[in-house]
Amino acid sequence: MLIFFIDDLFTFEKDRAYKFAKLVKEELPPIEWQCLSRVDTVTPDLLNKMAEAGCNRIYYGIESGNQTVLKDVKGITIEEVENAVKSAKGAGIATSGFFMLALPGDTKETMQETITFSLELDLDEAIFFITTPFPGTRLWDILERKSLVDFNRLDLSKAFYCGTDDMILFNLSNATDDEVLQMFRKANLPFLHYRIKIMLNRKLGKGGRLLYAIVKPIIRIKLLRTLARNFLKVIRV
After folding, report:
1. How high is the pLDDT of residue 103?
2. Are 18 and 40 in contact (CB under 8 A)?
3. At what angle do helices 108-120 and 177-204 cross, to 10 degrees?
4. Angle at 202 between CA 121 and CA 233, to 5 degrees
């Protein structure tokens, strides 16, 4: 059985997380579970206890690979991100990272930094979104101050985050809408290449590097990219 806890900050109260891990390990039959977290709310010891209790994957909200943007949006550092990913991997927990493009202060260059950073972290999965502000949030206040909200056509069900064909893009960054969409379309492909390369190297050694050189241009075909992603999920690379 696999259980996913839909709690944006499962590890916010460390004492509760420790107690939960202890009870699961002592009172329940073996289970596998996953959770969401922030990189500044975990420690190596807590992650080890969670792994012993059956946690097999943790999802970190990383957001950006640019220190200035990251500090402004999340109040965390690149070093904290690196340490949290490393600690989870050390405990035997797979790591997934959420990243946001078009954050306040973002440019085409800083969004590229985010994509590059996702490859450097040794994550098992990287998931990219375009920033979507919602009423009541600090990002929404920024949107209003920039006079980017047209209340006559406002329909949050069409926000980019929802993935509809007639989407509305609320761009808070210093990049153009076209640049944001270009970077978003670009974001997932390098990580897919990276995971396939690592998988082939692990499985086949030198032969894997040769095979990767052969399949690399093929992955550019959209249908084959989809098949490759599904393949990686099946073998849990």
Report:
1. 95
2. no
3. 20
4. 70
Residue 47 burial (CB count, 10 A): 24
pLDDT band at residue 237 under the 50/70/90 scheme? very low
User: What tens digit of pLDDT does each residue of 148-158 get?
Assistant: 665 555 666 66
Where in the sequence of the chain do the CATH 3.20.20.70 domains occur?
Answer: 2-131
What span, in angstroms and rounded, lies between the C-alpha atoms of 57 and 60?
10
Residue 169 vs residue 86, higher pLDDT = 86
Q: What is the pLDDT of residues 69-115, one digit of tens each?
A: 999 999 999 999 999 999 999 999 999 999 999 999 999 999 999 99
Q: How far is CA 46 from the centre of its chain?
A: 21
pTM, full prediction = 0.78
Contact call for residues 100 and 72 (beta carbons, < 8 A) = no
Q: Which CATH number applies to 2-131: 3.50.50.60, 3.20.20.70, 3.40.50.150, 2.60.40.1120?
A: 3.20.20.70
Assigned token pair, 48: 């080890």
